[in-house]
Design a protein that fits this description.
The complex is a heterodimer.
Chain A: E1 5-7, E2 10-13, E3 19-24, E4 31-37, E5 43-50, E6 53-57, E7 65-68, E8 75-79, E9 88-97, E10 103-110, E11 114-118
Parallel strand pairs in A: 2-11
Antiparallel strand pairs in A: 1-3, 3-8, 4-5, 4-9, 5-6, 7-8, 9-10, 9-11
Chain B: E1 3-6, E2 11-14, E3 19-21, E4 23-26, E5 32-38, E6 44-50, E7 56-59, E8 62-65, E9 75-77, E10 86-93, E11 102-103, E12 107-112
Parallel strand pairs in B: 2-12
Antiparallel strand pairs in B: 1-4, 3-9, 5-6, 5-10, 7-8, 8-9, 10-11, 10-12
The chains are: A mainly beta, B mainly beta.
């Protein structure tokens, strides 16, 4: 069964360093998302991406964040200068045409997450 | 804006007990409603969904009915198992591609043998 994959599963970095989190969405999906979950808190939307541009972003997604689809399969989230408060689980998700071929645009499938620890 | 309110946890039940986790929402129009489950150490899995008023989503013995009049989408299961222990998130999105999911704060369910 197709699934969203994310690498690495755990990333430890020093404050001020740049990190890139990687995701491979489900192959026929058209919409891609990043969410984060600070330990013990709710899941928060960061950004959505469609047709090679950002379609929606939250207040959290400031100038320190950027997203890119560098090729036909990967979707990345870059944090330019990490802060302690960026420590969280980051989830990638994708949605698009249903697996059976019919539309299911608002059903989002999540990856297993990358745990980012900023020291 | 959109918001989702869930009952506080943790909810602790004995095996085979009846489960209800309350969820109410605020949104414009006719959002799609979802329940996601997060097992310990894992990511989010879609449990069930409903896309219009009076729809009932169901999966693995769990059910939730989209109640437009009370803006609610309560999760129920008639007989819980230890393996149902997880965190359950209610969420909504507007019915158009690429829109953000708005999540509730999550409710931790602990089922004891």
């Amino acid at each position: 069964e197709p699934e969203v994959t994310q690498t690495p599963s755990h990333q430890v970095t020093q404050m001020g360093q740049e990190v890139i989190l990687r995701c491979v969405p489900i192959s026929n999906h058209l919409y891609f998302y990043w969410y984060r979950q600070i330990l013990g808190q709710k899941v928060e939307f960061l950004v959505s991406f469609y047709n090679n541009e950002i379609s929606e972003k939250s207040e959290i997604f400031d100038d320190q964040f950027s997203v890119e689809r560098p090729d036909g399969s990967n979707f990345t989230l870059k944090i330019r200068s990490t802060k302690l408060e960026d420590s969280a689980m980051y989830f990638c998700a994708s949605s698009g045409p249903g697996l059976a071929g019919g539309p299911s645009y608002n059903e989002q499938f999540f990856g297993p997450g990358t745990r980012l620890t900023v020291l | 804006g959109n918001s989702v309110t869930q009952m506080e946890g943790p909810v602790t039940l004995s095996e085979e007990a009846f489960l209800t986790i309350n969820c109410t929402y605020t949104a414009t129009g006719y959002p799609s409603l979802f329940w996601y489950v997060q097992y310990p150490g894992e990511g989010l899995q879609l449990l069930l969904k409903a896309t219009k008023a009076d729809d009932k989503g169901s999966n693995k013995g769990f059910e939730a009915t989209y109640r437009k009049e009370t803006t609610s989408f309560h999760l129920e299961k008639g007989s819980v198992q230890v393996s149902d222990s997880a965190v359950y998130f209610c969420a909504l999105t507007q019915p158009r591609g690429g829109r953000a999911l708005t999540f509730g704060s999550g409710t931790r369910l602990q089922v004891q043998p």
